[in-house]
Amino acid sequence: MKPESLMMSYGYKPELSEGALKCPIFLTSTFVFKNAEEGKSFFEVAYGLREKKEGEELGLIYSRLNNPDLEILENRLTLWDNAEDAAVFESGMSAISTSMLTFLNPGDTLLYSNPLYGGSHHFINHVLTRFGINIIDFNSTESKEDIYQKIEDANLSGTVKMVYVETPGNPTNSLIDLKMCAELCSEFSTEERKSLLVVDNTYLGPLWQNPLNIGADLIVYSATKYIGGHSDVIAGAVLGSKELMAQIKGMRTFLGNMAGPWTGWLLMRSLETLKMRMETQAFNAERVAAFLNEHPKVEKVYYLGDLTPEKDPEAYRIYKSQCKSPGAMISFDIKGGEKEAFKFLNSLKLIKLAVSLGSTESLAEHPFTMTHADVSSDVKNSVSITEKLVRISIGVENPDDIISDINQALEKVKVPDFSFLQ
Ligand SMILES: *Cc1c(COP(=O)(O)O)cnc(C)c1O
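That is the input. Now the predicted structure with pyridoxal-5'-phosphate docked in place:
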């Protein structure tokens, strides 16, 4: 069966919960063992003192290690990405930082794509470097040869242990070729040391891009975005093979940054409508993009659905090979600069002025001064994040209402008149 058919029931047994149709919220810190022998047996598995028997699951011990709401949610999350296992965290950032801390050691090199989510960029540049991890970045315009040249120029002692990629890039939807990254990882790998490809799949996942099928080793999510989808919960997830996830779950146990049962329950509720929400958002986004493309006060639209083999052959090729939909994130350059962008944002009525994305309500923001304020001007310029750029996350409202809100806000903007220059 398809994931959307299983989201209401998969992994939950009503007979274990007094017949309750829905999985209750297991607000308990600890679990009672039937007898001392059972407690001993559960701990043997938890601490890896013995191999699991055929079909044996880790018994319920303590909610930092496991809890029914988290386990059922994790089982359901694996279905969308065809993953062996998943781990849920209290935020996207804890999913990301835990994945990095699990596999990177002093002297290792992390290769990452630009632009990254601001929090990930900060963690890599200001925290990992304190622990002796070398970092090298690349962007969507750089080829495999360019990347090899950069690594050679950096003259590092250690090997590249992890390639960390966000695609499509936030906020301009620039694409990184995941197949090329998977090739890099296999070239960096040796018998004893596997180099891992980790993909932040928040922007298109889990419906529209499935990196594990394209050679990624791990997927990370901010479940705060599409997966949660209602702007009412912060959460994150990591997905991958049983072997890698066992290491990540081990690290999570000791960092103690698992999600709580209430978060787990909220996300299970969200997953039931994930497909309908995301499909409606993508449907609306297509209409909004068409409107923006025709508007005289809009200079350029950054929307995956606009890629063509003639204008952008390379991006189009990557798009066709790894994305199943253009998604619901649109950015555009307004004619003018910060003043015009702010006037537009301040004039919106239905669309709220807020960061975050992927939720039922449409949100708009100004990346240059908000989500990407911390990124250096050089990097911002190299990836088209300028004062005139506005980002919109399209929600599930009626598309005509979204468009008329954008239209009335654009009407309030006075485009500077440069005609005297001609
Ligand atoms: C929001 C976001 C994150 C961080 O997730 P939190 O849930 O806010 O911790 C990471 N990556 C991307 C692409 C995001 O949009």
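The first helix runs from residue 3 to 6.
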